[in-house]
Every structure is written in C-alpha cells, then in structure tokens.
Write a structure and sequence with these properties.
Blueprint (H helix, E strand, L loop, with lengths): L1 E5 L6 H9 L7 H6 L6 E6 L5 E6 L7 H8 L4 E7 L6 H12 L5 E6 L6 H15 L9 E3 L8 H16 L10 E10 L3 E10 L1 E3 L3 E5 L3 E10 L2 E3 L1 E3 L3 E7 L11 E3 L7 E10 L6 E2 L3 E7 L2 E9 L4 E2 L3 E12 L6 E5 L6 E9 L10 H17 L2 H6 L4 E2 H8 L13 E5 L2 E5 L1 H21 L8 H8 L5 H13 L4 E3 L2 E3 L9 H16 L7 H8 L3 H14 L2 E5 L2 E4 H18 L4 H8 L3 H13 L3 E4 L2 E4 L12 E2 L5 E2 L13
Parallel strand pairs: 1-3, 1-4, 4-5, 5-6
Antiparallel strand pairs: 2-3, 7-8, 7-15, 8-14, 9-13, 10-11, 10-15, 11-12, 11-14, 16-21, 16-23, 17-20, 18-19, 18-22, 19-21, 22-23, 24-26, 25-26, 27-28, 29-30, 31-32, 33-34
C-alpha cells in the first residue's frame, strides 16, 4: 500500500512520516535549512507479513500544489494532517478537494500538535474536520490526535497500527494490463547510470524488459528494479519502483514522462475528458479558456473546447483539452485542472478519449462514442464501443483504450475479428452485415443507373457506398463478398454475377470496323459523327455499339461521342502517372504540351481520369488516388473478355455527358 500525505504547510506532515517510519523525507539542503518540504519525499517501513508500506510526503505550500498532485496521483490511502493550533486552513481544503477529484476514497486524519492547545480547541478543530469531510469519500476516515514529535505517543502508535492494518487488508491492484509508470524523479547513480522512480499505474515490468519513454517515444532496457525500496526482479501495479535503465540518458527523461509497454501509449495533443468543476471555484469555462492540467505526474498548459455547452462551477461537462505539446493518457485516468495563473484548483475529471479529433468533435456520432467510453469506464466492458462503432474498432485502438494486451482483451463472444491489411478489426455481426448490404445495394444502384457499364472498381464503389470506411477494411469486405460469389471482380471492375453485356454478330462486325479507325487516331481519335460517316452507319447505331464495347473494356468514352481504345488510355495513364511521380501532379498546360493537343482536349482527358477515380483534382493539378487499381508500371493486365485492366474504374466514364 502507498500512503500519501496531505495538508497545509507546517502542519507536521514530514515530522509525522518520520515518527511513523524513522525516515526524514526532507533530503534537499534548502528543505532542511528552511524546515519546509519543497519536493516529494519518500519513506518505507516493513510490515509483519513481509510486505512494505510506502509513504509519499508532499509539500503543503500553496505554490507547490502542482507537486502535491504529482505525489497524490498514484496513492492508495490518504493521510490528511491538520495542526490543532491552526485548524483547517486553505491548503487543507484544497488538498481534500484534490483527493476527492482523484478518486482517493480511503484515508485517515492525523490531528497534530495537540500538546499546544486545550481540549476545547481540539473539539473545535474536530468539528471543522467533520464539516470539511462530511460530503467527501473520506467522511468516515478515523481521526488520530497525536504529538508527531514523539514516536511513542499513544496517538502516533494507534495511527501506525491502523496503517499497518489497512495495508494488510489492501488487495493488490490487478496487474494484467500493460505496464505504465508515472515518472516523478530521475537521477544518476554512480556505477549504474540513469535511475527513474515512480508509481506503477498498471501492469508489471521485469528485469530485461524494453520500455518506451513517452511521449518522446524513446526506448530503454530495464537493467534492475527496486520495488517498495527492495531489490526485485519484478515491479507490479500499485508499487513504488525505481528502474535502472540502459540506453537512455538522464537528460532524456523528466518528471511527467511515462515509462510504458510500447503498445500502451501514444502521444496526443487533444484529449476529451469529463470535467467536474468545484462548486466553490466560481469557474465559467468558455471556449479556449486556458488551464493548468495535472495528469499523473504531468503538468501542462491547455485550452478548453466545450463539446456540448460551457462548463460552470458545480457542474460536469464533456470538454476537449488542447495542449501545445503532446500528452499521454488512457481512458479513466484522473486529472486536476487549475486556473490560468496556477493558483487555484478549479476541478478535475477523467479522461474519456486520449486521441480526440480536431474536426467533427461535436457531431452526434462523436458524442455517442464518448458516451460509450463513459459506459466502458462504468464497468460495461467494450460492448458499448462496438455497438457505437459503425466500422468496428481496430485491435490496436482497443489496446490503447483499455490498457489490455491483445490476448487479454475482453471481447464479446459474438464479435467478429476481421483481418484488414496489417491490422485486425473487431466488429459486431449486425454491423458487418449492414456494411455488406450497403455495398451490395450501391452496386445494384450503379448497374441500374448505368446498365451499359461493367461496374465500378473497388475504390470507386467504396466512395459511392461507404466513403468513410477504412480502405483496408473495405477491401476485406469486398474480398469476402467475392469469395461468396455475391460479386465478381473482372479485371478492375466489380459487378453482380448476373450483370453482363454481349455483342450480337452484327454488333461484332461493326465493332471490327470501328476499332481500327479509333486506334489509328491515337491521342486524337475521330468523333462518332466522323466514324458513322466512314462506316456508312447511323450515328446512334455506332454510338450503341461503342457503348457496349466500353462495357467489355475495348474502348473508353472520354466525353460524349469521343472514344479512345484501351492501348491509348493505358499510354495516357502512364503519362499522367509519370508526371505525378516526378512533379507531384500534372496540370492542363503540361499535359497539353506533352501530348501536342489543344488545351480543351487535355482538360477533357484529365477530367476523364478524375471521374473514373484514377486521379483527383487538387487546385490546378491532378494527382493519383492512392486506392487506384491501375498498375501502370506493369502495363495493361487482362480484363473482362480479354480487355485490358485500366485506370481504377475507367469504364465509369461511359455515361459522362450523355
């Protein structure tokens, strides 16, 4: 068990810890000279069962509240110290409020300096404490009146016995999660190198493990461990640990950093939290109000963005905290906020999403996701997250949201795990079925709207059906539909099994006459009117046959009545691709000069590639889409009925400008 002191300056916290443990936690020369604590102090005392009881002694000065919060963030038990002569003072109240906001529910009260006051004063201070603690989680905390300067004082002895009893009854924190230690001290030890101390928030660490220094992202190897002031091979959640690290310099780590399993944390500058403001804070947080934020041992400046309505004193509200520098946290982590000057504690709360977005942060879907996180933190598991997530939740994200390793995630038995690229995604069956139906419905509509086309390519159908769906997960869905033969993939095009276009004998004869004429035109083929005149057929008849050829992949319609053969389209696609790779994009002027055609034709061809999903326009340039199915480096691949595979969804232009 770890005990943390709390209380006003000069009320005897350090003296009491020395009486309980025999250790003077004031180690700095200035602390000893001035007789006050400036930094966190640490002490340990053995228990009868072989365990060790740890103490964190915090400073009580109002200017050092940030240090007090760093010390109190990982304690199991609060020891509130109040001097009988002073009674309840400002920092007494502030420390009690901080303990309440941090969720510390176990504790005891030490009423010190009783040798300086009369009985009436003791009764008066006890009444003050009852009023102060009456509405807090420490309302039933036992009170011990004592003289801390005497280690054998009956009150001190009773308090010591009580702490030992509480420690024996304290259950070890679960250590199945990923390892996290909040760094509160870094120093160099001669002959050993860098040593980092802190409280283990979750998981466990062993000698030889590799840990990440976050948010910097450095890695270090654990040479040796001291847990609860004893040499050990293992440090676990709830213990004070000192880790001797290799491969990292002292200057690379500071208080406020985390040592963690490399999978546990990721840096972020935006964190969504459920914030509660103290009733007596007088706070009214508007958009972009500045705050001092204390999370773990970290102290950062942030700006507030209300997600629903401005936060007022005595109320709770969801807000986004925007930091200037990256932070690390997990859902459920407690935090304290103080005013812009860092003088007064305004409130505190719990982290909901440590990877909050900058856009659409107030959307219905986003607020629903935060509500699901609240339900998860309330003990409902990850089911609320999966119910809310239309596209499921990647395993890596679940690991960071729960702090559990992948093999220990509490996945619902009915949940599906879908391989998506190099990731796995957890989706509820009903959600997955709805996504499948959305894809099938979009493909049916596409065939109904443009029956002469073979179908869209994979990327284009995603943009039509489910544009927000992650590309890798979409690919897995399409592959599943193809395996079940619900859709067919012919070359670059997706289509329903029953969707097909055939040419009659007369159509094939006419197509045989048209194809050489179009090919001979290279980058400037004849228009339908010219083709009809050359083959002595009506324009509409020529137009119908060419549209059928488009469906089969033989030719492509760039604009109405202008068709290119597949080899020329492949050449044009290669020209566009090469220019994009060399210059980052291609504009109409460069494309015109490359082809030797007019500006109008260059624009028509570039817009054709935009329409079919091979490129997209960015200002005046056209750049390749990353999800294009076109493989320009390997040349045309066999498509449907012997046609060539072309730029992603290239056949989709057949209906353009009809």
């Amino acid at each position: 068990m770890i005990v943390g002191t709390a209380g006003h300056i000069d009320h005897g916290k350090t003296t009491l810890v020395r009486a309980l443990t025999g250790v003077n936690t004031d180690r700095l020369k200035e602390e000893k000279a001035r007789g006050i604590s400036i930094e966190l102090g640490y002490a340990y005392t053995p228990l009868e069962n072989g365990e060790v009881l740890g103490f964190i002694d915090v400073p009580g000065h109002e200017r050092l509240v940030h240090t007090m919060v760093a010390g109190a963030c990982g304690i199991d038990f609060a020891l509130l110290v109040v001097a009988a002569d002073d009674g309840v003072m400002p920092q007494t109240r502030e420390h009690v409020a901080i303990l309440e906001l941090l969720g510390v529910s176990r504790g005891a009260v030490a009423l010190t300096k009783i040798d300086r006051v009369e009985r009436e004063r003791l009764d008066e201070v006890q009444a003050q404490l009852q009023r102060l603690l009456g509405l807090t989680a420490l309302n039933a905390a036992p009170l011990f009146a004592l003289d801390a300067t005497a280690a054998d004082h009956p009150g001190t002895t009773a308090l010591r016995d009580h702490l030992h009893q509480m420690a024996a009854q304290t259950r070890a924190r679960p250590h199945q999660g990923l390892f996290r230690l909040a760094v509160d001290r870094v120093f160099t030890l001669a002959g050993h190198g860098t040593v980092v101390t802190g409280t283990v928030f979750s998981g466990q660490v062993r000698t030889g493990d590799t840990v990440a220094v976050m948010p910097a992202g450095l890695t270090a190897r654990v040479r040796s461990i001291h847990a609860q002031n004893r040499a050990a091979d293992l440090g676990r959640a709830g213990e004070r640990c000192a880790l001797n690290l290799a491969a990292v310099e002292k200057s690379a780590i500071a208080r406020g950093d985390w040592l963690a399993d490399p999978r546990a944390l990721a840096p972020s500058t935006r964190i969504d939290v459920l914030l509660t403001l103290l009733a007596d804070s007088g706070a009214h947080l508007k958009s972009w109000s500045p705050l001092h934020v204390h999370l773990g041992t970290t102290h950062r400046l942030a700006h507030v963005v209300p997600l629903e309505s401005p936060a007022h004193a005595g109320e709770s509200a969801r807000v986004q905290l925007v930091f200037d520098t990256p932070m690390c946290a997990l859902p459920g982590d407690r935090l304290i906020v103080r005013d812009a000057q860092g003088r007064h504690t305004l409130g505190g709360g719990r982290v909901l999403d440590p990877f909050a977005p900058a856009r659409r942060r107030r959307s219905v879907e986003r607020l629903g996701f935060l509500a699901a996180l609240e339900r998860m933190l309330a003990g409902e598991g990850i089911m609320p997250l999966l119910q809310q997530a239309r596209f499921g939740v990647p395993i890596s994200e679940l690991v960071r949201l729960t702090g559990c390793p992948p093999d220990r995630l509490p996945l619902p038995s009915a949940a599906l795990t879908i391989a998506a690229g190099g990731e796995h995604c957890v989706v509820l069956p009903a959600r997955w079925q709805a996504l499948r139906e959305s894809a099938m419905s979009a493909l049916r509509r596409f065939h109904a709207d443009v029956p002469d086309e073979p179908g869209p390519d994979v990327g284009r159908l995603r943009r039509i059906a489910l544009p927000a769906m992650p590309a890798a997960l979409w690919r897995s869905l399409v592959d599943e539909l193809a395996r079940e033969r619900l859709v067919h993939l012919s070359g670059a095009w997706l289509h329903l099994p029953e969707h097909a276009v055939t040419l009659s004998a007369s159509d094939q004869t006419l197509a045989g006459k048209l194809q050489p004429l179009i090919a001979a035109g290279r980058f400037d083929p004849p228009w339908v009117r010219e083709l009809a005149a050359r083959v002595h057929e009506p324009e509409e008849r020529v137009r119908q046959v060419l549209r059928k050829q488009v469906t089969q992949g033989g030719v492509y319609q760039v604009v109405r009545d202008l068709f290119y053969d597949r080899e020329r389209i492949a050449e044009l696609a290669e020209i566009v691709g090469a220019a994009t790779r060399e210059h980052g994009g291609i504009n109409a002027a460069r494309f015109r000069d490359t082809l030797g055609l007019g500006r109008k034709r260059a624009i028509q061809i570039l817009e054709f590639f935009d329409r079919v999903g091979y490129t997209r326009r960015v200002r005046d340039a056209h750049v390749l889409r990353p999800d294009s199915a076109w493989r320009s480096t390997s040349g045309p691949a066999a498509g449907p009925q012997g046609a060539a595979a072309t730029p992603s969804g290239v056949s989709g232009a057949v209906s353009a400008r009809r």
